[in-house]
Amino acid sequence: MTIAKTLKAARGYERSGFSRFAEIAEGERPALGPVAKVADFLPVKVKDEYFNEYWVLYAGTILSMDKTLQGVNRIVPANGLTTPAIVYGTADIGITVDVDTELTSPALVATAHSASAVIPANKPIGWAWHNIYNGAVEARLINYELQPFVSILCDYEIEVPLIDALAGVQNFVPGSLVKPGCTGVEQGLPHLWVNGVDSAEQICGRVLYRDTIPFGTSSRSRIDLQKPVRGLGLSGTENGGRPRHLDVYQLAAPTTRATDFIRVNITLL
């Protein structure tokens, strides 16, 4: 079964204006790019009558990232390392993607029920600074993108490749704390901070998400076939179209490129 997309007619009403959040000082809103989408299986909360669509996360919600239930990185609420049930109500019928169908044949919720799947235990990566709409809008509608990307509120964000043992051994997940490596060639490189083992004074960041370094072959523009001027540090034929800042080699194996990278929210205690 697949989701049949429909057209959305224009509609205008008084905006609900509901928010639980006020900023007192300036923060950073990382541009998370294509992963900055909310999971389309989250149950709805309150309808914004102006756009005639539901919010699924309120401003002020602490957020995390999950890759297991939808197959790609998506924004979900942080759950304090618990696995609360996903409960769909009557308002979710025909509106929200049923999480139990997500990885096989996505379908919209048909009845009010508790899903079999749960959001895995996770760790926080930031805060929602605005209300976030139902992520299933794009799955339901052909001509409408209400909120194609969202951002989270945190501190300054960086992106770094994982090299050598870091990619396989450190097991970074969204919300993992980062410390500097202290031995051999990995001294100063990002390592996983372990509670009860490492000092809190060593924490220097929190992982927003982890993913595979993209290749130019996955882009419509086929960056891997472009021939930039040598020495400008641009992506092209020399590096398979990889982003230049992520095109690095393993320290212990100089002919092997790094495969994974992490986005890190800089956090100095």
The low-confidence runs, each spanning 5 or more residues with pLDDT under 50, are none
Largest sheet: 5 strands, antiparallel
What's the N-to-C terminus distance?
A: 49 Å
Number of helices: 2
Mean pLDDT: 78
**DSSP helix fraction:** under 10%
Structure at a glance:
By secondary structure, the protein is mainly β. It is built from 2 helices and 14 strands.
In words, what does this structure look like?
The chain is mainly β and 269 residues long. It folds into two domains: 33-153, no CATH class; 158-266, no CATH class. The protein contains two helices and 14 strands; from the N terminus they run ββββββββαββαββββ. The strands form four sheets. The chain has a five-stranded antiparallel sheet. Strands 4-3-7-9 form a four-stranded antiparallel sheet, with no helix packed on it. The chain has a three-stranded antiparallel sheet with strand order 1-2-8, with no helix packed on it. β3 (62-66) and β4 (74-77) form a beta hairpin. The longest helix has 5 residues, at 165-169. It is globular.
Q: What keywords describe this structure?
A:
single chain; 269 residues; mainly beta; 2 domains; 5-stranded antiparallel β-sheet; 4-stranded antiparallel β-sheet; 14 strands; globular
Present the secondary structure layout.
Elements: E1 47-48, E2 53-57, E3 62-66, E4 74-77, E5 85-88, E6 113-118, E7 126-128, E8 132-133, H1 137-140, E9 152-153, E10 157-162, H2 165-169, E11 177-180, E12 190-192, E13 205-212, E14 260-266
Antiparallel strand pairs: 1-2, 2-8, 3-4, 3-7, 5-6, 7-9, 10-14, 11-12, 11-13, 13-14
